Amino acid sequence: MSLDQTRRPRRARGFTLIEVLVALGIVATALIAGFQASSALTRNAQRQSNLLLGHLCAENELVKARLSKQMPGVGDNLIACEQGGRSFNVNLSVRPTPNPSFRRMDAQVLDGDIPVLNLSTVIGRY
Questions:
Q1: Which strands, in side-by-side order, build the sheet including 75-83?
Q2: Single pTM value for the model
Q3: Residue 71 pairs with which residues in a beta bridge?
Q4: Rounded Cα distance, 36 and 85, in Å
Q5: pLDDT (tens digit, 9 = 90+) per residue, 43-65?
Q6: What DSSP assignment string belongs to the chain?
Q7: Are the beta carbons of 103 and 94 closer than 8 angstroms?
Q8: How far apart are CA 38 and CA 31, in angstroms?
Q9: pLDDT digits (tens, 9 = 90+) for 2-55
């Protein structure tokens, strides 16, 4: 063995600070992407729930008008609707059509001030 080989210090094993910081940056980026994806899924599930409950409210009001066997009066009406433990408002709007035997009925469902859904139908004389 030569003298140069015995005096050469062994190289330390492990990670350098730069390698650790790069790894932490990669992990942080992956965690942020995962958080954004899960929050998007949560928002979409809430929107889906709002649409379903809002559709039930609007459809109930339109069917109620059809089953009344009376021509609805022209004008606007705000109706409270409770579905699935949530409170919605249904803004019913009845408008005349060119044919006097028919009326257009629009139901806009609101969650507070936020529009959720719009449904329309035509109701005729019976």
A1: 75-83, 86-96, 102-111, 114-124
A2: 0.70
A3: none
A4: 28
A5: 999 999 999 999 999 999 999 99
A6: --HHHHHSPPPPPS--HHHHHHHHHHHHHHHHHHHHHHHHHHHHHHHHHHHHHHHHHHHHHHHHHHHTTSPPPSEEEEEEEEETTEEEEEEEEEEE-SSTTEEEEEEEEEETTEEEEEEEEEEE--
A7: yes
A8: 11
A9: 555 566 666 778 889 999 999 999 999 999 999 999 999 999 999 999 999 999
In whole angstroms, what is the distance from residue 126 CA to residue 9 CA? 101
CB 57, CB 109: distance < 8 Å: yes
Contact 55, 119 (CB under 8 A): yes
Tokens of 28: 């942080």
Distance CA 98, CA 108 (A): 22
